[in-house]
Every structure is written in C-alpha cells, then in structure tokens.
Write a structure and sequence with these properties.
Layout lengths: L1 H12 L2 H7 L4 H15 L4 E4 L2 E4 L1 H28 L5 E6 L5 H10 L1 E2 L2 E2 L1 E6 L2 H9 L5 E5 L9 E7 L3 E5 L1 H7 L6 H4 L3 E4 L5 H12 L9 E2 L3 H10 L3 E6 H10 L3 E2 L11 E6 L6 H20 L2
Parallel strand pairs: 3-6, 3-7, 10-11, 10-12
Antiparallel strand pairs: 1-2, 4-5, 7-14, 8-14, 9-12, 9-13
C-alpha cells in the first residue's frame, strides 16, 4: 500500500522533496522506497529533469495499475464499513446530468438485500469523463449516453431507454411559440441555455440548426445542471433550451418553466448503462442493475 501511494504521489508532486513533505517522512526514506520499487521492476519508473520527475513508459503502465488497485482498495474499505453498519455494500455510480431524479430514486430504493440498504455515491459528469473513471475502477458502473465518439474498449453497454427532446421556455414565451409552427431562424435569435460543447445533446442541437439551414445560436449560458438551466429559463422571458422530455416535466414542477408543445423528428442518443467487461460483478451491483432496468422500464411506460 505504501509503495502504491508513493508512486501516485511522485506522479502528482513531480518532486521527492514535496512527496516527503506530503507523506510526513524524510527524503532519503522516499528515495530508498523508490529505489526498492525500481529494483523490483528491474528498470527506472521515473526520469528526472529540470521540470521535475516524469514516468517512463514502464512507470506509466505501473501507475495505471497502481491507481486501479488503490481505487479497488478504497471501494473495499467502503464496503466493509457499510456491512459493519448493517448495510449491504457501498456502490460508486457515475451519472450524467440529464437523468430524472425519480428514476434514480426508484433504482436506489429497490436495491435492498435482506432488509439492509445498499448505500450509493453518485458522481455527476459527462459520459466521456465518467467512462475514464470507470476504467480506473473509481466507479462501479456509469449511467450515460451512447455516442459514436466514445471509446468503448474494455466496456460493455446496455441500452436502458430512449429520451425525446423537448423545447422549454419562459411561460409567456412558450405561449407565443406554441401558437405557430417553429421557425428556426426566429429561435436562433433567442437566449439559449445549453450544455457545454462536445456533449451529445449539444451536438444534436447544433446539427438540427445546421440541417435547417440556420447558424446555431451561441448560448448565453452553458451549464450541465438541469436545475440551473430551468432556473435561468424561468427567469428570462427570451430564454429557451432543449432538454429531454422527462427532464422538461421535472423542470415544469421545480423551476416553473413551460413546455412548448411541438414535437421534433429526432431522438437523443439513448440512456445507457456502462460496465467493465473484465472483473467479477458482486451481488449488490447486480441488484442495482436489475432495479435500474425496472425503474427505466417504468419511466419509459409513463412517457409519451
């Protein structure tokens, strides 16, 4: 464990002096520990230069494995603590922002073993960021969105349900827009609140404007938070956004936006469960997966 922590600390600090300070030990002790490791592997793990220490090709490989092992040990400790407190286990689940809260709540609530609750930590980010953490074993699974640009090496995926896009706006603006067919050139002049570039939803919206022959509007605010998007749209009489229909329904309730009653002839990339191909899947994670699939089936059945 100490050697694994040492490797990661050297990568982060790039200086044995700073590593010794961080680990509350002496520099000679850190130097000796690194020498022991390099002797074990039979080659240098780091190179030294005026810019600090950098991993060699072998060092980079060892660091990848070290980070994975440390993540597994962290999860192991959380699982043991959960069982000691009469809970089944602790799950680390990655989620993208535009997921309905009731679906996640149902899935978590259904994940019970013998009357003991499985505890869950939710990590919110974009699909590509979450999948990188899934590969390093920081996460047990990811609920994200499929995309052609995602690296799927070493992963398996299961489509959970499809989301349709919905235009949301300030209530007075939505009433005006709902009285006539949508004009994309007119929509482009409004104040758009959108997710960041290179996210699947943002790319879909950009593509739709381009196919309509209209230059995509620059958003006046970019945000990954559905709640923030809802609050911004509800407060600005010129504000609009496109979000999944199930999220739009939540924002009507919690933020006071209005849904513009127009249907689009395209769908968003489906909500998908991602897991690692390699490695054992323990029972608590499988229970969560089954509960998630049931919650998504219920959600799909209630959406138009």
């Amino acid at each position: 464990m100490k050697h694994l922590l040492l490797l990661v600390a050297i990568q982060q600090q790039r200086s044995l002096t700073r590593v010794a300070e961080q680990m509350a030990t002496s520099q000679p002790a850190v130097t000796q520990a690194l020498a022991e490791l390099e002797s074990l592997f039979g080659a240098a793990l780091f190179t030294r230069s005026s810019r600090g220490m950098a991993p060699t090709a072998l060092g980079a490989l060892v660091l990848t494995r070290a980070q994975t092992l440390l993540a597994d040990l962290d999860h192991w400790a959380l699982d043991i603590a959960a069982v000691a407190q009469q809970r089944a286990a602790h799950l680390q689940v990655g989620v993208i922002p535009f997921l309905p809260g009731r679906m996640l709540a149902q899935a978590i609530d259904r994940t019970r073993l013998q009357g003991r609750r499985t505890t869950v930590t939710l990590h919110e980010a974009t699909s590509d960021q979450l999948l990188a953490r899934l590969r390093t074993h920081e996460l047990d699974c990811v609920i994200g969105r499929t995309s052609a640009i995602l690296d799927m090496d070493g992963l398996r995926h299961t489509v959970l349900y499809a989301q349709t896009p919905q235009l949301v706006a300030h209530r007075r603006l939505a009433a005006r827009l709902g009285r006539r067919p949508l004009a994309w050139a007119e929509l482009a002049e409004l104040d758009w609140v959108l997710g960041p570039r290179n996210t699947p939803m943002r790319e879909q919206i950009t593509d739709f404007f381009l196919r309509a022959g209209v230059e995509p509007p620059p958003p006046y605010v970019e945000s990954l938070s559905a709640k923030v998007i809802g609050e911004l749209v509800a407060a600005n009489e010129r504000a609009v956004s496109i979000v999944p229909a199930d999220i739009a329904q939540e924002l009507v309730r919690i933020a006071g936006v209005a849904i513009v009653p127009h249907a689009f002839n395209w769908q968003l990339p489906p909500i998908t469960l991602f897991q690692r191909k390699a490695g054992a899947q323990y029972a608590e994670l499988q229970h969560f997966v089954e509960a998630l699939q049931q919650a998504c089936a219920n959600l799909a059945g209630t959406n138009p």
